[in-house]
Design goal:
The protein is an alpha/beta fold. The protein contains 12 helices and 13 strands.
Length: 317
C-alpha cells in the first residue's frame, strides 16, 4: 500500500533540546489522522517538517510517494497547510482574497473569480463576501483560511489547530468543512488540543507527548486501551490524596489519572466488580466517599492517563 504520508524515525533538535524523538507514522489516503497532545508536545514541529517548512535532523518523510527531502518543490504542489492564524489580507474583501490567491496559482481572471465565488458559497460566506476581512469574526476568518488553502485542490492538507480560540458554534462549522474535504478524497492531518475535536473527526489518532508518539489507534481502540470503564468518586471532605493513591496501588494496583478537583478522583477499571471492590476498600479504610459513578471511558480519560503517567507525583499531590 502506498500511503499519503509515511514517516520513519523522524527527529528534530534545537541545540541541546531534542524536540522530536524518533516518530514513525503512516497515514492512509483519504483518512483524517489526528495528532493529539498538550502544548509543547511537538505537534506543530512535526507538521512543519511534513510540509517542508522545517528540515528534520533525521529520518525520512514521504508524501504521496515522494521523498520530501529530495523533492520538496514537487511535494509542495500536492499539499496545503493551514496554521493557527488566518493568513489573509485584512484590507481586502473575502471575495478579493480568494480571487487573488487563485490568480497567484495561475488561473485566469474569469476562472479565479468563478473559483472564489464557488468557495465563498460552499463555506457559507456569501453574505460577507464583499466585506473586508478585518471585520470578519474568528470563525469566518478560519473558514476563509481553509477555503484559501484548497484552491489548489491539494491531495494532502495539514490543519494545525484550526479551531484554536473559536467559540463552539464556529468550531462546529469548521468541523463540517473538514468533513467535506474528506468526501473529496483529501487526506487530512489535523493537530489539536481539543479532545472532542479528535473524537468527532478522526479515523485514527496519535497521542504525542514530549516529542514521542505514546499511543496510536482509532478513538474506540484508545478508549478501550485504558480499561472498559472509568470510576469517578468524590469525597465529602478534604483527605490526604497520597494516602488514597497508596491504598489504590497496594490493594488494586490502580493509579489515579486526574486531580482537577481536590475532592474528586478518576481512574480506569477493567470490570464493574473491580469498581465495587475499590469503593469497598475505600470505605474499609475510612476514606469519606460522598458519591461515585461508573461510566465508559472518554478520550479525555485516555489523554489524561497517557500524558500524566510521567508526572504522577504532580497528579496525586
Amino acid at each position: 500500500m502506498q500511503y499519503a504520508i509515511e514517516v520513519s524515525n523522524l527527529k528534530k533538535s534545537y541545540k541541546e533540546n531534542q524536540v522530536i524523538r524518533g516518530i514513525d507514522l503512516q497515514v492512509k489516503k483519504g483518512e483524517l489522522f489526528a495528532f493529539l497532545g498538550p502544548n509543547g508536545a511537538g505537534k506543530t514541529t512535526v507538521i512543519h517538517m511534513l510540509s517542508t517548512l522545517l528540515k528534520p535532523d533525521g529520518g525520512t518523510i514521504f508524501i504521496q510517494g515522494l521523498d520530501a527531502k529530495k523533492y520538496a518543490k514537487d511535494v509542495r504542489k500536492k499539499i496545503s497547510l493551514t496554521g493557527q492564524f488566518a493568513a489573509l489580507d485584512e484590507e481586502l474583501t473575502g471575495l478579493q482574497n480568494l480571487t487573488l490567491i487563485a490568480k497567484l496559482h495561475g488561473h485566469s481572471n474569469k476562472q479565479a473569480h468563478l473559483i472564489a465565488n464557488e468557495l465563498i458559497c460552499a463555506f457559507d460566506l456569501y453574505e460577507a463576501k464583499n466585506r473586508m476581512v478585518v471585520n470578519y469574526s474568528g470563525g469566518m476568518r478560519r473558514r476563509m483560511d481553509i477555503a484559501a488553502s484548497i484552491i489548489t485542490q491539494p491531495e494532502v492538507i495539514f490543519l494545525d489547530e484550526p479551531t484554536t480560540g473559536l467559540d463552539p458554534q464556529s468550531r462546529m462549522q469548521v468541523w463540517e468543512i473538514v468533513r467535506r474535504l474528506l468526501t473529496l478524497g483529501t487526506t487530512v492531518l489535523l493537530t489539536t488540543q481539543y479532545l472532542e475535536e479528535a473524537d468527532q473527526l478522526a479515523d485514527r489518532i496519535a497521542v504525542i507527548d514530549n516529542g514521542m508518539i505514546i499511543a496510536e489507534g482509532t478513538p474506540n481502540q484508545l478508549k478501550a486501551s485504558i480499561g472498559e470503564k472509568t470510576l469517578t468518586f468524590r469525597l465529602n471532605k478534604p483527605y490526604d490524596r497520597k494516602k488514597v493513591h497508596k491504598i489504590l496501588i497496594e490493594q488494586h494496583a490502580l493509579n489515579i489519572v486526574e486531580a482537577k478537583n481536590p475532592l474528586s478522583f478518576k481512574l480506569p477499571v477493567t470490570k464493574t466488580r473491580l469498581a465495587n471492590n475499590v469503593i469497598d476498600t475505600l470505605l474499609k479504610h475510612k476514606v469519606p466517599v460522598e458519591d461515585f459513578n461508573l461510566s465508559d471511558p472518554s478520550l479525555d480519560d485516555v489523554f489524561l492517563a497517557l500524558t500524566n503517567s510521567e508526572h504522577e507525583e504532580e497528579v496525586v499531590q
